[in-house]
Automatic annotation (TrEMBL):
Its EC number is 3.1.11.6. Heterooligomer composed of large and small subunits. This is Exodeoxyribonuclease 7 small subunit. SUPFAM superfamilies: XseB-like. One of its GO terms (biological process) is DNA catabolic process. It is found in: Cytoplasm. GO terms for cellular component: cytosol; exodeoxyribonuclease VII complex. The gene is xseB. It comes from Cohnella candidum. It is an enzyme of class 3 (hydrolase). Keywords: Cytoplasm, Exonuclease, Hydrolase, Nuclease. It catalyses: Exonucleolytic cleavage in either 5'- to 3'- or 3'- to 5'-direction to yield nucleoside 5'-phosphates. Gene3D superfamilies: Exonuclease VII, small subunit (1.10.287.1040).
Length: 92
């Protein structure tokens, strides 16, 4: 069954929403943390989770590229691409 899920992910991964991928990823993490998963199943879940993690990262990058901030300048309102500072998401 996990193989079917992996096939669905690779073929439908582009149509899966960020929220759907995150929800599945949270389910996988919860199952792995429970410790009640046989080794072979845990490996398959881990692989699926890594694929979902990459998918979420790619979707976030796409959104980040699309976000534009309105900036008020001397000549009125203008646009500039969204560019977060490294300190915002660093947590240090």
């Amino acid at each position: 069954m996990a193989e079917d899920r992996g096939d669905k992910l690779s073929s439908a991964g582009e149509t899966q929403t960020f929220e759907q991928a995150m929800e599945r990823l949270e389910t996988i993490v919860s199952r792995l943390e429970s410790g009640d998963v046989p080794l072979e199943a845990a490996i398959e879940l881990f692989q699926e989770g890594m694929t979902l993690s990459r998918l979420c990262g790619q979707k976030l990058e796409q959104v980040e590229r699309r976000i534009e901030m309105l900036v008020e300048g001397e000549s009125g309102l203008g646009r500039k691409p969204f560019a977060p500072t490294r300190e915002e998401g660093n947590g240090d």
